[in-house]
Each structure stands twice: as structure tokens, then as C-alpha cells.
Amino acid sequence: SNRSLTSFKKEFKRHFFMPPHRWFIQQRLMQSRLLLISTSKSISEIGIECAFANISHFIKLFKQRYNETPASFRRNSSVATKPVYSDVAAG
To answer: Rg (Cα) of the chain, in Å, rounded?
Structure first.
């Protein structure tokens, strides 16, 4: 971007309302949520795929952001996304 690191960080924060490092972590956590509900990969595999070298740190950050562990999120999401069938649709 042809500017100093300090200048870049200030401009980034002005546009995204958070520092670049926190934004990057947030993006990785959002990706992990998507993988939790759309794949059967293990929590460890998802953590590694989303560039978290330490799985316990991944779980800690996930819980801070979403108020539940990745396993709990997956369990609760799978119940919520199961199709609901009604007799009206059959008739």
C-alpha cells in the first residue's frame, strides 16, 4: 500500500473498526464456523485448517467470540439445521 505500517494500521482500523490482527482472527473464526456446520472434520482438523497452531487457543478464542465451544456450536447447529417435515407438504 506504499505507506508506513503505523499509517496502514490506522487506516485499516478506520475502515474496519478493529486492528488488522483482530480482523484476521475474526475471519478465521467465521471460516471455522462454516466448516463446523458444513463438514464432518474434527475440531482439531478445522482449527489447523483455519491456521490456529494451538487447538486449545482456537477453542478459547471461539468461545470468547461466540459464547460456546466449537463442539457445542456444531451440536446445536446440527439440531437447528435438520429439515422439518410437515403433513401439509405431503398432501
So the answer is: 18
Q: Are 27 and 64 in contact (CB under 8 A)?
A: no
Q: What are phi and psi of 50, to 5 degrees?
A: -95, 20
Return left, alpha or beta for 25; rule: phi > 0 is left, psi -120 to 50 is alpha, else beta.
alpha
The C-alpha atoms of residue 46 and residue 39 are separated, in whole angstroms, by 9
Q: Taking the chain (91 residues) in consecutive chunks of 10 residues, what is each chunk's mean pLDDT?
A: 89 93 96 96 96 95 97 84 50 47
Q: What is the pTM of this model?
A: 0.79
